[in-house]
Predict the 3D structure of the following.
Amino acid sequence: MHPVSVAAIDLGASSGRVMVGDVGPGRLELRAVARFANEVVTLQDGLHWDPLELYRHALDGLWTAVSQSPDGLGSVAVDSWAVDYALMRDDRMLGVPFHYRDERTTAGVERIHARVSPAELYARNGLQFLPFNTIYQLAVDPLVDEADRMLLIPDLVGYWLTGRSVTELTNASTTGLLDPRTGAWDLDLVERSGLSPAILTELVAPGDTLGPVTPEVGARIGAPGLDVTVVGSHDTASAVVGVPMQGDDAAYISCGTWGLVGVELDAPVMTEDARAANFTNEGGVDGRTRFLTNVMGTWLLSETLRQWRSEGDAVELSDILRAAAAVTDEVPVFDVQDPRFMPPGDMPTRIAEWCAERGVRAPAGKAALVRSIVESLAQAFADALDQAAKLSGRTIRTVHVVGGGSLNHLLCQATADRSGRTVLAGPVEATALGNVLVQARALGAVGGTLEDMRALIAATHDLVRFTPRS
């Protein structure tokens, strides 16, 4: 084995980054070379992303990564949030990709369920019901009939880098159009949904080589011929690779804008009980199944702070969390999964309305409100952990919290308290770690199993332990 340096383009739902990973026997180091915002763009027809701006930032970051790597980069790989896509015709995007929080998909849910019942849909794709799953978005996309292919966001960036159109398996598994048992497109379901199979591209797996960058990209970043490697391009798939789990009694919470709560299994669980609990079976690296449910994550906190700042109060998250930790009065625990909290907007008012509708006293003051959000998130995480254990037949003793939420020690402690389980927080950059490790394995720099890669993470990163308080 020989050490390598690789670049990860990691695009999250609120921010993006380009990271360089230096990987070899006993070595796993990450350094950020670029960070940039990823903000909602509101147009007359709804909420959108700006993939061109993200791509520009990614190229700038790659140029920096190359210039700061005197021994060169072995490869680069892309991961991003799931379900959203661009429709293509020839070499051009048709329109601007919609944001999954756009409300247009309500009609798509109705249209698909009129063709395929929710029970049958789950029996075929194993996905929890989320109104923004790709299948629902496509059902109401007016440009779908004009497209010759659909590219999910990381595959769109991969296409711009290499000129090759593919769909990576872990992200394909979030579309609702993939059979999780066979790992192939469910073409009958595609046609019954009123879609053309022609828009679906070749499926590729983590570890495959997408190809070298185009000559134009190579010249732009100063690295002609740099290979683009396929990784778990759904950011949660890469994040789960980056969870230093040891044994079968561990669960994970990949906590950022969303809190993805679940366990890693060898096969999907597609029972009626799993459907009723709204658990999903998404593809993982090396054919594993990510059996999880989506819980509203730090979106509630970030939107709350955004609202206060729009009103002239430049409160910082670290300061308000310290104040929240000092709150001793009981605060309400509300349902963070209520659909009212999905769109951007005034979360403090919505929380107060939720409480008023139920005759519950709303939090008094900013610190109490933040404490209420934290405790409500922790209770939702605890409930999801109990369900994951029951549905999978696993005993869960340890919970790994990775991603940005691992820095929120108040949330981690509350999760330990409310779940009755030990919480291990970190690493923060689990997604980038999973991305670079799959690249490094493809280049022969690390051992061959997920367990080997996780052992390297555990040996090179410090975790913070939170034990339940009585």
